Each structure stands twice: as C-alpha cells, then as structure tokens.
Batch of 2 targets.
Target 1
Amino acid sequence: MTGLELLIWARGPGLVLAVSLCIFGVILRFIEILALGRKADLAPPRQSSAGSGWRTIATRSLPPPGMLRRAPLTYLGGYVFHIGMAIAVFFFVPHIELFRGLFGLRWPGLPNSLVDIAALAAIVALLALLIGRMVDPVKRLLTGAGDWLAWALTFAPLVTGYAAFHHLFGNYTLTLALHILSVELLLVLLPFTKLFHAFSLFLARWYNGDIAGRKGVAT
Amino acid sequence: MESARGVRRPRHEQEAGAPQGGDATARDCRRRPTTRWLLRPGRRAREQERPAAARPRRRAQGAGGLNAFKQVIDAPVASFFASCVHCGLCAETCLFYTETGDPQYTPIHKLEPLRRTWQQEYTLLGRLARLVGLAKPVTDAELEAWSPLVYDSCTMCGRCSMVCPVGNDITMMIRKMREGMAAAGHAPEGLVTATQRSIQSGSPAGVKWVTVQAQIKRMQKQFGISIPVNQENADYLVLMSSWEILNYPEYLGAVGRIFNKAGATWTLSEHAYEATNSGMQIGASDLARELVGRIVKAAEDLKVKCVISPECGHAYTAIRWEGPNLMGRRFGFEVKHILEVLDDLSRTGRLKLKGSIDKPVTYHDPCQISRRGGVHQQPRTLLRQFAPQFREMTDSGVMNWCCGGGGGVSANERAEPLRIISFKRKKAQIEELGISTVVTSCANCRVVIEEALEHYHMDVELLGLTELVAEHLAED
Ligand code: SF4
Ligand code: SF4
C-alpha cells in the first residue's frame, strides 16, 4: 500500500468506521454507567439542588483557591494542553472543512500561525505532563498502562499533525495519512480508555454538584 | 468514671463521636451480608491468632466484602471511576498526604480495591479481561492491607471531593468502601468495640441513662434551669454525643438556658439521648440503621416537631442526611443541627445576644457540619453578634482542613500516631493567624484538638459555640 492509498482509505472508509465505532463505544459506556442507577435521596434537601450539578460542571474547570500554587505543573500543563489541543482540533481551517463534510456544521477558523502556536504549546505541555508523571511520586503510584496508553494516543495525532503541517518528514502524503490514522485510533479507543473522561466528567461533575447542592454546599 | 468532666477512657474505649461522610448511599447496603458478626466480642481477636489459611469464616467474610463492594457501586461511582485521570490533585487536598508526603495517602488510591471491583464487574473490557484471566482479582489479603488506608487515613472530611477536577466525590466512595471492609472483617478494633457498645448499651462509650440523669441534675443546679425529660409534643428533642455527656455537659446547660429564654419547648428522651453513630463510621448500614431507628422511634413516640443534632459532626450526617436513607423513609419531623436552630431563633428575634468577646477569635469548621452538612453561614452569623474581632483562617468554611480525628479516626487507636501528625495542618492554620482563641461546634473536634494542643504544647483556648451563645444571652 502506498502513502496515497493509505491516505485515501484513511479519509474515506477509515474515518467513517472510526467515527462510528467511537459513537458506538461512547453510547455503550454511558449505558454501562447509567444502567447502574442511583437511588433517590430520601433526606429532604436543604435547598433545591436544581442547577447545582450544572454549576459544578462549569466551576470545576477552575482551580479552587490555593490549589494552583500547590500543583502548578498539573494545572498549567493541563490548561495549556487542553486549550491548545482544542484550538488545533476545532479552529484549524482544514479541520473545519472536514467537520462540515461529516456533520454539515461550520464555524470560522483561526489563522494558521495561531493554530500552529497552539499545537506546539499543546505538544510541549503534554511532554511536560509526561515528565511530571514520571517524577512525581503520587502520579507514579497512580499511573498504570492505561495512563501511558492514553498519553500516547493523544500525543500521536498532535505530533503527526504538526509534522504534516510543517512538512517535517519527506513524505507529506504518508505523514498526513499517519496523522489521520492516529486520530482514528484515538477515536476508536477513546471510549475504552482514560480518554473517556472527556465525556464522563460531565456526569461525574454533575453528580458531585447535585449531591453537595442538596446539602447547601456549592462545589 | 462516666460522669466527671475531663475523665478520659483509654483511647480504644473512647467514643466514636466523629464526623462522617453522609451521602444518600446508605440504603445501597440493605440487602448485603450482615455485619452482625461484629457484635460477637472476641471473635476477631481469636481469629487473628490463627494463620490466615486456617480462617474459613474469614474467607467467607472476604467474599461478603466483595459482594458489598458490588452492591454499593451505582451510576455516580461508575462515573467517578470512569473519569479519574490519575492527575494526583486529590493528594494535595488530603491532610494525610500533605502532612506526611506519603503517596499511599492519595485519596483515590485508598479506593483501589473498589475501583478494580467496578472495572471487573461493571465494564465490558474488565469483564472480558476477567474471562480470559487477565484481570487481577481483589483478594481478602488486599482488603486487609487497605484497612489502614480506608479507616486510619481518611476522616471522611470531604476536601478531596471539592477539588478533583473531574468532579469525583471520593469521600462518598470511601463511605461506600467501608461497607465492604466491615463486611469482610477488616474494620479496626477500636471502631468495632465502639459499635458493639453502641448496639448493646446505646452509646459507643457505654454511657448509661443514669449518667445522663446525673448530668441533668448537675446542670439544673449549676444554671438554675429545669431540663424536661420524656415530654410529649415539644418543639425540640435534644440529643447529645457521649462526649457532651461525659466531657462537656455545659452544652446541655447552654441549650436549656437558650431555650428557656427563647420560650421554646424541648425535651430529652430516656430512650434516645445518644446521637453518635459508629455503625455509620465503620460502614455497617444495618447497625447504623438500628442506631438511627432508636432516635426516630423516640421522636415519633414523643411527637416532637424537630430533632436537634448536637455539636457533633458525624451525628448530624447520620441523622440528617443518612438517616432517612438508612430507614428507607422520610421522617415526620425535621432534623436540624443545633447551630441551625440557634440561627433560626436569632433570625426570628427570639434569641438576642449581647456583650462582646474582647479578643480575636477564629472558627474551626467541623467537616461534617460545614462542608458535608451545609451549615457554614450560621456559625459566622452567630459569632459576629458577639465576637467583633472574629477572623477567618485561610481555607475556611467549606474548604476548611479537618482536625484529623473525624470519620471514626479518633475512636481508632491504631490511627493515633498518624492523627497527631495530621494535626500539623490545623496547627499551621492557627499559628498563621497568630491568635489563641478557637471556637468550634463539634464535641469530637474539641476532644481531638484539645489532645493535639496538649501534645504540641500550644497555648490555645478552645470553646464550644453553643456554650458561648448561652453566655451572651441578652437579659431583658
Ligand atoms: S483528583 Fe480526581 S482525577 Fe485526579 S487522581 Fe484524584 S480522583 Fe483522579
Ligand atoms: S475525605 Fe479527607 S481525609 Fe479522606 S481522603 Fe478525602 S481529603 Fe483525605
């Protein structure tokens, strides 16, 4: 298979397959979680908890007082990586074209130079987080194969995308094909790895906010 | 020895009056293996003398533990485990980690056996892995090894649940994990003893009604008030914790003075005077239910409008938040913490305060009352009325640091050295403010802090808020 054939497969059937598997996996995981159910809380709430789950979904994105100082690398690395990656994924003009083709939605993109900086920042942040994971005793204790896998799955599309954009490796077509394939691998495995937090954290934060909200505590 | 103020029982005999994690989860465990075996004294001690291989019943209990694990896992727990990204931030919020630097005290790590149970039982990949023999099963030896993490190094303070970036309520999961640990026979001896005594004698410290009667007499004489007992149709049924009965009976005198002044009707009950619940702390919902049930029965028999949880953190969680879920029904009466009642009385003008404390004071938020209970404004509103120099610690209110003795830790002798180390966080908070008067509203916090102040030779005065309120009643 040549680089071109690979690219054609990746952009066509490969993409459809990966997106379908991803959607299927996400639905499956949500069912897996929600089917476990939750018993109604019989203790009368101090106040209505309506809205507290949603509020926590938003507020948990910010570090609580004092925490930024205690764990600067985790927070800053986390922010730079997530924001940088989001810019690269959703505001790079060729990506927007792809989304339009897939879902029919479109929105304005950002200049390539900005996207370039964002992608590079995300790559650097991921590397910093990786080193942090290797040296911090707490993270080392918690880290298992799944964490390394999640890191690699995220890193590959960023690096191949960056390389393709800058024509870093000789064969552009092959680099682009690898970029798309690495995204597809990420999509297929996302529901079954730690990366699923991208979806499940909305549930987790909502539950947390709701449980505490009934008691009159904003979390 | 039960009546004199200041008398301390040996640590392992002390009360389990300590904050606990609430959460509407207690009913999850109603159909799980019973923890009645806890009530057979000496059984565990005898078994521990035998080699592990010669403990058939223990293995059965280990299986019971795993069954309990399976039963406490619900959608929130699954969403929490599914979301954890192993960022380690929860460690930075837990005083057992911050004061020791030991990574094993990372909150989410304390739940590892429960997490693996979730993965192997309730995820597709986990089940596949188990089928092909790739999954590492949770063993009884592992549960035993986790006992100090789940009981000694967690006060159920709830701080980690406030910070985890993906929103995990880790504290609630530890409460659930204790159900399995207790069923498997891995609860610490001190808590087992306290629970046995609670079920048998009504109080974790073995306090009998005659002791309460003696304190009632003392308080009536000291403050010239009358303390009603077993009176029907009162507004309030007043409960106490063993610590209040044994060490701080002035609480009862204070409540009497305040209610007399405010014209509220109240009563004690001979059948339910103890508010603490070591069944909840140990993670035995069947026993917790029995203890709450006694209070519910007394309240309904006496037809009171409201049951007042004393200045004790976990008692409030047990009755207010877990109670209806343990009993499987809503109550026909309200449950309030004493500070909520005082705040109500003050708002409606029935409680007027005067005078002022002429020195800077600060407030130590008991975790179960503030962060896990939602009573964090009321103490401040009350204090500001007579403490103009009131000052907040850094990290106060719902972000306060635990005293180190909640969640049954103070009743757990095995945890004592760690508890003393973990107090360094509170010590630093107090020293940073540079003031020497701390007010709080949990008898267990008071005992734990007093002991630690002594240990660290700190010259700090510790006061109970209800007693302070009573001392600042306006004469009219
Ligand atoms: S803070 Fe939350 S996401 Fe991070 S390791 Fe702890 S539980 Fe997991
Ligand atoms: S509840 Fe408190 S003591 Fe327990 S793990 Fe969380 S922060 Fe630590």
Target 2
Amino acid sequence: MPKRTTPAAPPGILAREPRATPLGPHARALGDAQRLELYYWMRLTRTLEERLVALYKQTKVVGGLFRSLGQEADAVGSAFALERRDILSPLIRNMGSMLVKGATPLEVIRQYMAKGDSPTRGRELNIHFGDLDRGFVGQISHLGDMVPVMAGVALSFKMRREPRVVLVYVGDGATSTGAFHEGLNFAAVQKVPLVCIVENNGYAYSTPNPRQFAGEWFKDKAAAYGIPGVQADGNDVLAVYDVTRAAVERARAGEGVTLVELVTYRRKGHAEHDNQSYVPPGELEWWAAHNDPLDRYVARLTSEFRVPAARLAEVDARVQREVDAATDEAERSPMPEGTDALVGVYADPPVVPAEWYREGVTKAVERHERPASWGTSGGE
Amino acid sequence: MANEITFLEAIREGIDEEMARSPEVFCMGEDIGAYGGAFKVTEGLLAKYGDARVLDTPISEAGFVGAAAGAAHMGMRPVVELQFIDFISCAYDMLTNYVATARYRAFLPCPMVVRGPSGGYVRGGPFHSQNPEAAFLHTPGLKIVYPSTAEDAKGLIKSAIRDDDCVLFFEHKYLYRRVKGVMPAGDHVVPIGKARVAREGTDASIITYAATVHKALEAAEQLAAEGISVEVLDLRSLLPLDDEAIQATVRKTHRVLLLHEDTRTGGIAGELCARINETSFAWLDAPVLRVAAADVPLPYSPPLEDYVLPQVADVVRAVRHLLAW
Ligand SMILES: Cc1ncc(C[n+]2csc(CCOP(=O)(O)OP(=O)(O)O)c2C)c(N)n1
Ligand SMILES: [Mg+2]
C-alpha cells in the first residue's frame, strides 16, 4: 500500500480520515472475481445515478432525485454479504444494495420516469420498490417504519426454521424515530435473524449528527437493547463487507440481532434540489478529494490486489453499455393509463369503481391540466 | 402588484408577527432553523429570534408534538412544523389521545399549532401528498384550519397561534408559491370557524376548501360562459364548521356540490351532506352531490394522479348534472 498523504482537514468541518482497516476473515476469503464484482456494483451505482441526473436535468425524472454519491461502498458491501435467499429493505441511499439484490437499471430509470411498466406501475417514486423473489422489500417514506416490518420478516424465518437472514437499513436521522426503537427492541427480545445497518452519513437533510443524537456513535445504542453494536469505515467496501458478513453469520447461527454502524458521508444534498448551504465550506471538497469510496477501492485493487487498470476499464465500459441500453429502453416505455389507478387496492374487489362523473372518461382528464411548473419543490 | 406576497410568505409573516408580539411563541421542527424548512416557510426566523425560539428537532414527530403539549401546559405557545403533513400519522397518538383530551379530562390547556405542507397535484406520490384532515375531524378537542388564499393563510395562522386550543394548520403545497395576495394593513386576523364566499352565484353552490377552491372558481368561470351562475363557498375552517354560512348558500341556490381533494369515503363531504340534510332539506331542489378523490392511495405518475384527483372538468360535469335535475 502506498503511504497515505491526506493533509490535515480545514478546521470546523466534518472530516474522517480513511481508516486503515486490516482485511478481516470474510474479506480475505473473497476471490478475485468477487472483488471485481464489488467494483462492478459500485461503478454501476455511480454511473446509473449520474445518468439519472442527466435525465433529471432534461426534466424526464418526475419528482425528486436522490443520490448516494460517496456511499456506494456502504450500500454495495453490506448487501454483498447476503446470500440469494436473504432479504433486505433499502433506504433512499441504497440503490446499490438493490442492484446487488437483482434490481435492474431499467427498473430504476422507469421508476424515476413514472412509467407504466415501472416496478410499481407508476404508483411510487424513485427507488421505492421491491421484489420478494429477488429478496428486497420496498420502503415507504416514513422513516423507521421498515425496522419493525423487517423484524417481522425475520420472525417468520425464525418460526419456520428457515436459515435466512434479514438486513434493514436506517440513516442516522431515522434512528430518532419511535418505529426504529420499537422494531429493534422487538427484534432483540425475539432474537430474530436481523441485521440493522445504521448508515451514519453525517446529516439528516440539513441536520448534523449532534442535533440528532447526544451520544457519540450510533453503535453505542446497541448496548441498551442487549445486542452487539459494531462499526466500520463505510467508505471501505471490504471492511463493510467483512463487518456485515460477520453479523449475517451470527444471525444465521441463531444468535440474534446485530446493529452495524457504517461511517460514511453524504456528498450530495438531501435530494437534487438541496443546495447544501448548511455544509461548512471545504467539507464536500475534502471528502471528494480524500475519502471517495470508489477512488479508494480502485487504488487498493490496482496496488494491493494487482488488478490491471485495463480490467477496471472493461468493467467501466460494460457499465456504460448497460446504462445506455436501459436508458433507451426506459425512454420508449409508455406512461400508465389513468384508469390503471383504480386497480389493486384490495385483493377483492380487484378494481375500485370509477366515480360517476368519470363514466366514459378513459383518458386521465378531458383537458390535460398540468402547468409547466408542476413538480415537487420540497424534498422527500 | 408591488406589495403582493405569496401564500408561503404570508404564513411566514403571520408566524413572524406572532413571535414578535409574544415571547411565548416558539417554533420546532425538522430542518426549520438554518435551512428554513423543507419549503422555506421559517426562513429567516432563526436569524431574527435565535435558536432558543427556533428549534431544529431530531426526526421524532411523536417526541416533539408531545413536547409541544407539555410546553403549552406551562404557558408557552409552540408552533410545530411537520416536514410534510403526511408525517402527522407518526404523532397521531399524541394528538388524538393526549392533546385533544387534555382540557376536557385534566383542565390542561394545549395552546399549540401543528402545521405542515399537505395536498397533491404535485407528483409527490403516496407519502408526500396526503390530506389527512378527515382523520382528525373525528376527534373532539382539536381544531382544523385549511386556507386557500394568501390573506387567509396569514390571518388564520395568527388566529391559530392565539387560540387557546390545539389547531392543526394545513398548508396546501400546491398553493405555496402559486397563490399571492396583498395583506390587509395592521393586525390582520381571520377568525377560526368562519367560511368565506369566494364567488357569488345564484344557480348552484360549490362548498369546498384548500386547493379545490381554485378548481371550483375555474369551473365557475367556465360555467358562467354557459349562463350558469355558481356560488363558491370556501370553508377555511373544517373544525369547527361554519354552519351558518353553509345553510345560507344552500338556501340561496338550492343546489349543492361538495368538492374535496381528499378521498371520497369518510371524507368531510359526508359530514357536510349530513348537516345540510338535517338543516336545509326543504330548500334543496336536487340531491347533494360529491366530487372527491377516488378511494385509492394517491399514485405518483402524472396520468394516474390526474385521474385520481378532482379536476375542473369533473366539477363542470357535476354542476351541469345538478342543474339538469
Ligand atoms: C417519519 C418521518 N419524518 C420526516 C421525514 C422527512 N425526511 C425524509 S428523509 C429525512 C432525513 C433522513 O436522514 P437520515 O435518516 O440520516 O438518512 P439520509 O438521508 O442521510 O440517508 C427526513 C427528515 C420522513 N421521511 N419520515
Ligand atoms: Mg443521514
């Protein structure tokens, strides 16, 4: 490894030096192909989000756009620790986790463009979608709610003696909700096979950690629930993988819940509209220059693991092709028909009747009323 | 116009004036301080009043709504922001069990305001577009206000802050920057519980509130071209309802359309219809009709949202139907 030469961070900013974490047992067991696969998922996450930004600027994205720039390692490395049969529930910065679990760029782009053949048929936004077969449950906006829900998924595995593990993500901010507390406590008492990842990215919207939580680290919350709390450098994909894999194996062995804190940083605003005026000057630049998870992983792959740069370039080219193809296909997708809205509220009856004044109206409205300025002006 | 301000600025001006007027008034909510709130309603208040009176909270709706009640018992006047009104469900227990019953069961006052951006027509999807007012209409002890004009937004937020009970103040986000008004001079206060005739008419009445007031006015304009004269009553306050104003318009036009953006079943139109039936049955020349959102969670994609929410064309059709009765 080359000697690190990170200069001292300017005073008053949130800066965290990359930690020199030695390779843990699980990370050591990864082969060349798996290490390259991790790179592929991280690169795909970043490139796909960059494509979404381009589509957003062309006003083809309906609603807000959420980035995970600088957090690709935490999403990808943690999901990579699961097996095919395991289930996760992502949050808004976990597109990478979903991709690892089998979500496709085509689905993500269709979803952001509100297309009729998107995974939610245009009913939900951004990466709010799931697929039980592939092993991910879609989130709702209300923060913390997925913790009890995923505790229940884990409970079903325990009851049926299925050797499957559940992973649920929350942000530093979401740990302040009642639902987080109730779900984690329930899971701990029931000793279900659940891993709860707290992605500590420094901010919840504009709120920095000290105004969210009076403790020092989120992993310290675990002790009060009687479960282990562990922590890793969230921008070191191998460290993330290692710590999550250990928690997953512990859960699979019937030893119960682990809280894993991944320390990372949110480089973009809460959503694309947020200008980050509350971030001290120099902070974003510091993270981009000195603690970017992709840069760090590329450096490690090429030096420590002797991966030729050309191999990485091949992956980049493959990612580019896949994202291009997905974009073209998503652009050709149709918007939903208005009346699709009436289907599927209940199993029985399958369709809600149309209002009497809409009889014979098959298009959304007779006169399309959408002013040019429509679109949310706030965040998620 | 030079001194015109937006609906959003009108709310800010109202809060600002009340904070200046009484030191007990303070604001709490997520990202409301330096950031000024997700929609910037509280922008500038931190700089003016300091962080002792403009508090950024953790993401704990039950926590800070409950804390507002405690502070209100002690004589403070908290104004709590929900980042989106959709998150009021997280504080439902506090509001309906604790706050709403406090005066009745324990003689404890709860002079507090719970406010936040509500409503659809903005492609916000199922969790950033809700209209949960009816869930609270059924809770004696709470008041509910839902303005449609900038003047009323200011006058009503001031009344809400001065009210001695808990007021839920809904701010339709579609109106935030689209609706503007010139504020009346001086201490402009609009009483809670009083409706407003938004347009005079003689052939039929549309009773509505919030964003659909503007849909009703647009429909009335179209119908006027056909020679149909429509009166539009803007309720402004949903709890308490202005029965006098409701009766007056029913007895004037004899034909009533109830219009709201909330879903149809269990929506406020049902309560309005019952009251009209009880008090003014003999004055009706046609059954009371409803235009409301379809009974589905509000979807995100534009064609779906447009289909589910009431549109001007629906209102026009329904009024024609009333007239043809
Ligand atoms: C119960 C609830 N309250 C408020 C919000 C609005 N909101 C959405 S994301 C967010 C900040 C989340 O911060 P964090 O949990 O740290 O996740 P991050 O965005 O940093 O990944 C807020 C306040 C919400 N979605 N749910
Ligand atoms: Mg965060």
